[in-house]
Design goal:
Blueprint: E1 4-7, H1 11-22, E2 27-30, E3 44-45, H2 47-56, H3 59-65, E4 67-69, E5 71-76, E6 79-85, H4 86-90, E7 99-101, H5 104-117, E8 127-133, E9 138-144, E10 147-153, E11 155-158, H6 165-170, E12 174-190, E13 198-203, E14 206-212, E15 218-223, H7 240-247, E16 251-267, E17 271-272, E18 275-277, E19 283-284, H8 292-311, H9 321-346, H10 350-367, H11 371-382, E20 395-398, E21 401-402, E22 427-431, H12 436-444, E23 448-452, H13 456-461, E24 467-471, E25 477-481, H14 486-499
Parallel strand pairs: 1-2, 1-11, 5-13, 11-18, 20-25, 22-23
Antiparallel strand pairs: 3-7, 4-7, 5-6, 8-9, 9-10, 12-15, 12-16, 13-14, 14-15, 16-19, 17-18, 20-21, 22-24, 24-25
Length: about 500
């Protein structure tokens, strides 16, 4: 039997399967569809997702396949109100200082191919009919057409979307609601040179986004004007005039058009026994900021290394409890944040329309002149701000970095401290010279120790000179100490024993 059954082969499930398989876990992945998606759907791949893909060895390959949107333009009726360079905002924060425009169908096909390269094939046309679990296994009933088959596994990961059969089978609540407004999405060709940037168009009637897709196409996203929303428009022609006026384009061809409602929900729990929820199965929210797909991929990366460690006896089972505590809090925060943004985009009334159409663009223009505001904006959009400081796995502080923080990147101006992360294994980083006692302790534990000569870029990143940081397989700091001496070794020993971490038996990629 497989050790882990992954239900759902969207981006979240595919990343889950890949991360598990490359860490030595026997994984089986199913999906009720007949093959990878054929619609562009989610478009934005954020910097943090590309950083995870870099650990897997294909971050640069995906970046080359998509279109890096390096600049954001903010427009209103008077023309361009602000221009923000993501490359400037995040150039020293991430190896990928932009939002990558990469259609979801191409994204899924890319991941399916990467899975095939390591010997894992998606079983298509297969759905989860039911499941039962005991103290030591999950028994899933799988349906293929008229036939059913039972499959046993140690753990099951439900990555099967908003209508998750896994969540229903586990009887986990999915509180939230549906907004009254109707959104549209259109992949189009427009007059003139296609833009490679992201444009946010603010007007009294609403907000419209324009970003590159592929082959010179432009994706247009916005809210269907209320006078055209009931019944929903069957074609772009119904809303052409107000959309072109708001976004400032002339559409010459429509390759895909769809309307949809926006939901906001978070599951009551991300785990029930040996079953877990990830991605849209656990949380859905407005598309504001392009965060949904990336959040699901973050769920998958977080859970996969923990499952691998427990299955291989390299950590105590209580490690799995940290998945929900680390990810559900962020999911709730994200739903609240995107809910506020969505209401701002869609609210009616003279005050809101004034703020959206005139005041907000002016404020954006002023705010983006300050480097602190630009950096904060990039951290928010790119998801590099996500941290787990208040969760049980994070301990200690050195410099500005707490246990639970994403390890800051120093490669823009100094040594690339992300290069060792490609092993996807636990490792100890020392920014300075480790003591002989600490080096001996790490060697005795078979823990890779990477020391970096102190550099000004490290200070800029918030790291402390002479400090030591225990880094998790997903690139987050688990434990930090201001020193790299015998005292740090003793602190590490206590931390490692608390979680039953065994680096000797770790399976490197």
């Amino acid at each position: 039997m497989p050790e882990v059954l992954v239900v759902g082969a969207g981006p979240t499930g595919l990343v889950m399967a890949y991360a598990l398989a490359t860490q030595g876990v026997d994984v089986h992945i199913i999906d009720q569809a007949s093959g990878p998606g054929t619609a562009s759907r989610a478009m934005g791949v954020q910097a943090r997702t590309l950083e995870f893909y870099r650990q897997f060895g294909f971050g640069d390959a995906m970046a080359e396949a998509g279109i890096p949107a390096k600049t954001v333009h903010v427009r209103n009726a008077g023309g361009e109100a602000a221009q923000v360079s993501l490359a400037e905002m995040g150039g020293d924060l991430s190896p990928y200082p932009y939002m990558l425009a990469y259609p979801q169908d191409a994204h899924e096909a890319f991941l399916v191919e990467r899975l095939a390269e390591i010997g894992v094939e998606v079983e298509w046309n297969t759905e989860l009919a039911s499941l039962e679990q005991s103290a030591d296994q999950v028994v899933a009933e799988l349906r293929r057409g008229e036939r059913t088959q039972k499959m046993s596994c140690a753990y099951l990961c439900g990555c099967d979307g908003a209508h998750s059969a896994t969540r229903h089978a586990l009887e986990i609540g999915f509180d939230g609601g549906t907004y009254a407004g109707l959104f549209y999405v259109a992949d189009t060709e427009v007059e003139g040179e296609p833009s490679m940037d992201l444009t946010v168009n603010l007007g009294s009637a609403g907000i419209g986004l324009c970003l590159p897709v592929r082959g010179g196409q432009q994706r247009l996203i916005g809210m269907v004007p209320s006078e055209h929303s009931d019944p929903p428009p069957e074609s772009f022609e119904t809303i052409r005039a107000p959309v072109e006026a708001l976004i400032g384009v002339t559409v010459t061809k429509v390759n895909w058009f769809s309307t949809y409602q926006v939901h906001h929900r978070v599951a009551d729990a991300f785990r029930r026994g040996r079953c877990f929820l990830a991605g849209d199965a656990g949380h859905i929210h407005s598309p504001a900021g392009g965060q949904g797909m990336n959040t699901g991929i973050g769920d998958a990366v977080n859970l996969a290394w923990k499952l691998a460690a427990v299955l291989q006896g390299r950590a105590q089972p209580k490690l799995l409890e940290t998945y929900e505590t680390e990810r559900i809090g962020f999911a709730r925060e994200l739903v609240d944040t995107t809910d506020r943004a969505f209401r701002f985009m869609t609210s009616e009334g003279w005050a809101t329309e004034f703020i959206r159409g005139w005041l907000a663009p002016k404020l954006a223009g002023v705010a983006t002149k300050f480097s602190a505001a630009r950096r904060k904006m990039f951290r928010l959009i790119s998801q590099i701000r996500i941290e787990y400081r208040d969760c049980e796995l994070g301990e200690g502080k050195a410099g500005e970095i707490h246990g639970g923080d994403r390890l800051p990147w120093t490669g823009a101006k100094g040594p690339d401290n992300y290069a060792p992360l490609r092993s996807c294994t636990w490792q100890l980083h020392v920014y300075g010279e480790p003591s002989e006692e600490l080096a001996t302790w790490a060697e005795g534990r078979s823990l890779d120790l990477h020391s970096f000569s102190w550099d000004e870029a490290m200070d800029d990143a918030g790291l402390a000179e002479g400090a030591s940081y225990l880094v998790r397989p997903d690139g987050y700091v688990a434990w930090a100490d201001k020193q790299a001496d015998e005292g740090a070794a003793k602190g590490l020993e206590v931390y490692v024993d608390r979680w039953g971490l065994d680096f000797v038996r770790e399976v490197a990629r």
